[in-house]
Amino acid sequence: MKIVRFLYLLLLGAASCFAQSKAPVINFAETTGMVGIADGETARFNVMNPGAVAPAVGVVCTAALAFVNTDGVTVKLLTVTVPPGRSASFDLTSDTDLGLAAGDRAEVRAVITVPAIPATATSPAAPSCSLIPTLEVFDTLTGRTQVVVSQVQAVP
Known about the structure:
- With 156 residues, the protein is mainly beta.
- Helix content is 12%, strand content 47%.
- It has a single domain, classed as Jelly Rolls.
- The protein is built from 1 helix and 11 strands, in the order αβββββββββββ.
- The strands form 2 sheets. Strands 1, 2, 4, 5, 7, 8 and 11 form a 7-stranded antiparallel beta sheet that branches.
């Protein structure tokens, strides 16, 4: 009987070890709509960490910023860390990054991915912080802004 109990406890312990796998990391992603970028232009993806209203303490946000083409391929990627009340930007240049020649044009969109706080029994997973994104396209030579996109859509 002792042997049976021992084997039962051994099997129960082994089963619990297999059941304790790490939960998958969930990320929250948002994307802008597509914008056109032509020769001589730069697309700039800005993110701002609004921080927190005093006396609360703000959260330092880390996020992956990416430019994606019409085929869904990531053209350029950067990870940023943004303290409360600060911002960061990420540029995609038509000549250096896309290799556009005179008369060429490409469509791109910006994607921001923020790690999530894991779900608990009482609350679902949530973004670990909140960044406010904007995408602008400007003339590289003059610095004049051609378009600004501030609306983003959550993506799975």
